[in-house]
Automatic annotation (TrEMBL):
<keyword id="KW-0804">Transcription</keyword>
<dbReference type="InterPro" id="IPR036390">
    <property type="entry name" value="WH_DNA-bd_sf"/>
</dbReference>
<protein>
    <submittedName>
        <fullName>LysR family transcriptional regulator</fullName>
    </submittedName>
</protein>
<dbReference type="GO" id="GO:0032993">
    <property type="term" value="C:protein-DNA complex"/>
</dbReference>
<dbReference type="InterPro" id="IPR000847">
    <property type="entry name" value="LysR_HTH_N"/>
</dbReference>
<keyword id="KW-0805">Transcription regulation</keyword>
<dbReference type="InterPro" id="IPR036388">
    <property type="entry name" value="WH-like_DNA-bd_sf"/>
</dbReference>
<dbReference type="Pfam" id="PF00126">
    <property type="entry name" value="HTH_1"/>
</dbReference>
<dbReference type="Pfam" id="PF03466">
    <property type="entry name" value="LysR_substrate"/>
</dbReference>
<dbReference type="GO" id="GO:0003700">
    <property type="term" value="F:DNA-binding transcription factor activity"/>
</dbReference>
<feature type="domain" description="HTH lysR-type">
    <location>
        <begin position="2"/>
        <end position="59"/>
    </location>
</feature>
<dbReference type="GO" id="GO:0003677">
    <property type="term" value="F:DNA binding"/>
</dbReference>
<comment type="similarity">
    <text>Belongs to the LysR transcriptional regulatory family.</text>
</comment>
<dbReference type="InterPro" id="IPR005119">
    <property type="entry name" value="LysR_subst-bd"/>
</dbReference>
<keyword id="KW-0238">DNA-binding</keyword>
Length: 299
């Protein structure tokens, strides 16, 4: 059976047209090289070289075989390099699930990740935390971004950051002239929240912050997601607490103010402990850690 080594030996001799130089190039002695070439010719059933004691040249069949052998060796090397890139996590695809409240944080994270790993194709799927857990089990996503912590023995969950909540006020709101605002200041005003049964951690984190401040928010409007909440704040229908990353959404008629109290919402990454794309997931997780550290250093 013709093996990869036979092609390497043949190409070296064909390019050098000298067994001694070819053997030196291949870091082997001349006698075994000559035997390998004779073995190749016997398997093919025809000579590749016309040779005597002082001269070596390719036969017509040898020249054709050289062209094809080079193509095969080049294809083999390209296959090795590409497979190596996939193995190292420099190429491939990564399916990422994320909760809607992390849209802006994820956009910033992926922008930098793509610069470092331009050959990795990213597929994004917005879904709730429980849906992400099921999608990880089913192999529909490779990694997920959620709020809070996920306690599951079959999944890895790592908290990577705490994002502050800020107050979103209508532009004409009497508290809008302040540089900061307390939760006590907001207590008398109507709130805009997601529904209790929406399955969103947003409702839980906002009501918990308010409870710790000593009041239960008076909900005037229930909205399905944070983008809608901001739109209703702009329409002067109430106040809201939103993740700081959403302040990039410069909506007309909305004023954002930092809270005087420490009200934060954890950001976590979840993944299978031993998924098929473990190296890519590890790259993404390491990049997320670095991105958060850089952000803290900048602040």
């Amino acid at each position: 059976m013709i093996e990869f080594r036979h092609l390497r030996y043949f190409v070296a001799v064909a390019e050098e047209l000298n067994f001694s130089r070819a053997a030196e190039r291949l870091h082997m002695s001349q006698s075994p090289l000559s035997r390998q070439i004779r073995e190749l010719e016997e398997m093919l059933g025809f000579p590749l070289f016309a040779r005597d004691r002082h001269h070596v040249e390719l036969t017509a069949a040898g020249q054709v075989y050289l062209d094809k052998a080079r193509e095969i060796l080049t294809a083999m090397e390209q296959a090795r390099r590409e497979a190596e890139q996939f193995h190292a996590g420099l190429k491939g695809s990564l399916s990422i699930g994320f909760v809607g409240s992390l849209t802006y944080r994820l956009a910033s994270l992926l922008r930098a990740f793509r610069l470092r790993f331009p050959e990795v194709h990213i597929e994004l799927r917005q879904m709730k935390s429980m849906e992400q857990m099921q999608a990880l089990y089913d192999g529909k996503i490779d990694v997920g971004l959620v709020r809070g912590a996920i306690a599951n023995p079959n999944l890895v969950c790592e908290a990577i950051a705490e994002e502050p909540l800020v107050a979103a006020l209508p532009g004409s709101h009497p508290l809008g002239h302040q540089s900061t605002v307390s939760l006590d200041d907001l207590a008398p005003h109507p709130f805009i929240l997601t529904p209790y049964r929406s399955g969103s951690g947003y409702y839980e984190i906002v009501t918990r912050c308010c409870k710790e401040a000593g009041f239960v928010p008076r909900v005037a409007v229930e909205a399905p997601e944070i983008l809608t909440i901001v739109a209703f704040v702009a329409a002067n229908m109430g106040v809201a607490l939103i993740p700081e990353s959403f302040t990039h959404l410069r909506a007309d008629g909305v004023t954002y103010l930092p809270l005087q109290s420490n009200c934060t919402w954890n950001i976590s990454i979840i993944a299978n402990a031993h998924g098929p794309k473990q190296i890519l997931v590890e790259h993404f997780l390491a990049h997320a850690r670095e991105d958060v550290q850089s952000e803290r250093a900048f602040k």
